[in-house]
Specification:
six-stranded mixed β-sheet; mainly beta; Jelly Rolls; 2 domains; disordered N terminus; 24 strands; 5% helix; elongated
Length: 340
């Protein structure tokens, strides 16, 4: 099984900082004013019943949680799959449903919803008397139905399959419902072994006094490294990587906070040597950043997919760049640039 490793390396903001001792970066909250803005209720979604007499108001969750973003995700042909629930990953969920007449009267709340609901978008039956919706739990996706007359809901099925989107369709008159499920004979998802296939080595080749971290994947598939760092002051910087090249090193594509910066970096060289790879000129806002290096292959002459990193640096640019505020308003996420 291909090994995925998340390496936390110290970021080199100035020459005086090294890849030596590192203190773990923890999540921090901004000032209360910003927290209240971010946590403000999201505008609900609205669905009108087929007979145009009733409106469903679906309250949405706000931003996804760290747990949601940290969940395992499979990527296949443009699909983003959460293997724990056999459905799409990073979906938008709803937390409650209300019903109101189109004239604004008789507002009622759907009762009997599950605890800690993560509800999918409801589907009206064609007679406007029932609703069907999904609920995602830690290990499955359930199908629930609500009777509009009594405003009570109940679970009718689980183990739904929503890899291509949850397909839920009412039969005429609301007399039945069609939905897709995961084949029960498929078996449980394979469990990854926690035993590493090989070490992540700190080596010293003589170039860097404190050594470097050597990433040694067995193949291209699933090979990546993430390097977190923090920025405290907005000022012009050049993002670069300092490391080594060798005849068994791979080719890696850099991403900064999910944005591709530059093209693939070929780390192959006939002999072992130190090198710098310059990635981006930008004015980073204060906050947390993650540089991700994904293996995309190797030079035909290379014998492997290794990656050796001594430091990630934010190098200070020339004083006149700051004085003239050149590109200070440029959004590097939409226009990443590197001046040669």
């Amino acid at each position: 099984m291909i090994r995925r490793i998340l390496l936390s390396l110290q970021v080199m903001l100035l020459l005086s900082m090294t890849a030596g001792s590192q203190e773990a970066i923890k999540y921090m909250l901004p000032p209360d004013e910003i927290v209240r803005i971010v946590d403000a209720p999201v505008t609900p979604s609205v669905l009108v019943s087929p007979d145009k007499q009733t409106i469903l108001i679906a309250e949405r969750q706000g931003l996804p949680t760290i747990r949601d973003l940290a969940g395992e995700e499979f990527r296949l042909a443009g699909l983003r799959i959460d293997p724990s629930v056999n459905g799409p990953s990073r979906s938008t969920y709803f937390t409650s449903f209300r019903i109101i007449k189109t004239d604004g009267s008789e507002e009622r709340t759907v009762k009997g919803l599950p605890d800690n609901p993560r509800l999918g978008l409801p589907v009206w039956s064609d007679d406007g008397r029932k609703l069907a919706f999904t609920n995602s739990t830690a290990g499955t996706t359930e199908l629930w139905v609500c009777d509009i007359t009594t405003m009570t809901s109940k679970k009718i099925a689980e183990n739904l399959n929503g890899v291509f989107g949850y397909i839920t369709e009412w039969l005429p008159g609301g007399n039945g419902i069609i939905f897709s499920v995961t084949d029960p004979a498929r078996g449980a998802m394979p469990v990854k072994s926690n035993v590493p296939e090989g070490p992540v080595v700190q080596e010293n080749l003589g170039f860097f006094p404190q050594g470097q971290l050597l990433y040694h994947p067995d193949a291209r598939e699933g090979a990546w490294v993430e390097i977190p760092f923090a920025v405290t002051v907005k000022e012009p910087r050049r993002l670069l990587i300092r490391g080594t090249r060798a005849d068994d090193y791979g080719t890696y594509q850099p991403y900064l906070n999910g944005v591709k910066v530059g093209g693939p970096i070929d780390l192959y060289h006939p002999s072992v040597s130190e090198w710098e790879w310059h990635l981006l000129d930008f004015w980073p806002d204060p906050g947390q950043y993650t540089l991700r290096l994904e293996c995309v292959g190797k030079n035909p002459a290379s014998r492997g997919y290794l990656l050796g990193i001594e430091a990630v640096r934010l190098r200070e640019r020339r004083p006149r760049v700051k004085e003239w505020a050149r590109d200070a308003a440029r959004d590097w996420r939409t226009e990443p640039i590197l001046y040669r």
